[in-house]
Design brief:
Elements: H1 3-14, H2 21-31, H3 35-39, H4 43-52, H5 56-65, H6 74-87, H7 91-100, H8 108-129, E1 132-133, H9 135-142, H10 146-154, H11 159-164, E2 167-168
Parallel strand pairs: 1-2
Length: about 170
């Protein structure tokens, strides 16, 4: 990866602009003519950036564009497996993969941001889609234990979450 490209990625991640990672990398990729730069392209970061933005289709195409050599990279393999779990709405596989993978220093902040956003989205979904829910089901959607999941829903900034979930069924 060229020094300037690495700097762009690091600046975006350091400033917490996770939503800008994928669009910036997409734009730079389109302008890149040097094959040497593409040989060192941060496909895992770009794919994870699309996951952060909930652009699963774009993330899938990032993976498809990657060369077979890139697809052997452990970070890209893990990012693609993460995509597959989200694509299939397999949250029981998504959370363990996200938390047990040895992410690199570059991808780790983005992975933490994806986890936080997924938890927030799950709480919002539960608040709109469920009138009652088992704590274990809530925990599987948020990647936490049942007690922590209950705390998350009760501390949700959305008053809708507190008024819509009328009952949390006992264990």
């Amino acid at each position: 990866m060229s020094a300037s490209l690495l700097q762009v990625v690091e600046q975006l991640l350091a400033s917490g602009q996770y939503g800008d990672v994928a669009p910036q990398l997409d734009a730079i990729e389109l302008q890149t003519v040097d094959q040497a730069d593409l040989d060192r392209w941060p496909y895992a970061v770009q794919l994870l950036g699309h996951l952060y933005n909930s652009n699963l289709e774009d993330a899938r195409f990032v993976y498809k564009r990657a060369s077979s050599t890139h697809k052997q990279d452990t970070q890209l393999k893990a990012a693609f497996a993460t995509l597959q779990h989200l694509w299939n709405k397999n949250y029981q596989g998504f959370w363990p993969l996200l938390t047990t993978t040895q992410w690199s220093e570059v991808t780790l902040p983005l992975v933490h941001a994806i986890a936080a956003k997924q938890r927030q989205d799950a709480v919002r979904l539960v608040s709109y889609a469920y009138s009652s829910i088992q704590p274990d089901r809530l925990a599987s959607l948020t990647g936490t234990n049942p007690q922590e999941a209950l705390q998350r829903i009760l501390q949700s900034p959305s008053l809708h979450a507190l008024t819509q979930i009328r009952s949390i069924l006992p264990f």
